[in-house]
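hey so i finally got around to running the thing on that chain from the lab meeting. sorry it took forever, my laptop kept dying and i had to restart like 3 times. anyway pasting the input first so we r on the same page abt which one it is
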Amino acid sequence: MMPAARESLLDAACTALARRPWSTVRMVDVAAAAGVSRQTLYNEFGSKEGLARALVRREADGYLAGVERALAARAEVRERLAAVAEWTAAAARGNPLVRALLTGCWSERLPAPALSPAPSTSAVPAQRRADGALPSPADLVAQVCDRAVAAMAGPGTSKAQAAELARSCELVVRLSLSCVAAPPGEGGLVGLVRSALPPQVR
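ok and heres what got predicted. didnt touch it at all, straight out
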């Protein structure tokens, strides 16, 4: 199957999930919405569990791609971390799967595939990846921090400075998630991030 058709199926599953709990989403309806046969859907994902894993993997990848865009958008470290905070809060507010991935709180409406690897016999490379381990909240935050260090640590950055950068990034992500649950007051999320970051993070 072409990657575009796989994306169409995942889009159809996402649309169905926005309308009804995952437990009531039917594979036949997802296939029909994407304009393919049910057999094609099963060939691509293997099962409804495989579709759920692929959907969760795609949302995790999309969130991390947004983090990378935020890190590339500005020059100063503080501004880049503020951009990561804004993206994280927006993604968690707007996408229940991203929110669940970052918090570990999976509502009954959502698919909740096991984070451990699933046995995979798929011939589809993207599905074999989805059948691998899915990120826990700690894994996802660590991946954000790794990307921040890779994007902002220069050749002269010491191990201690890189560790401080990673800690600051983790702080920013956790602040962002707290602001999804309890919206910040005057100054907003960016003001909160700027005041919380240590002075040495410029």
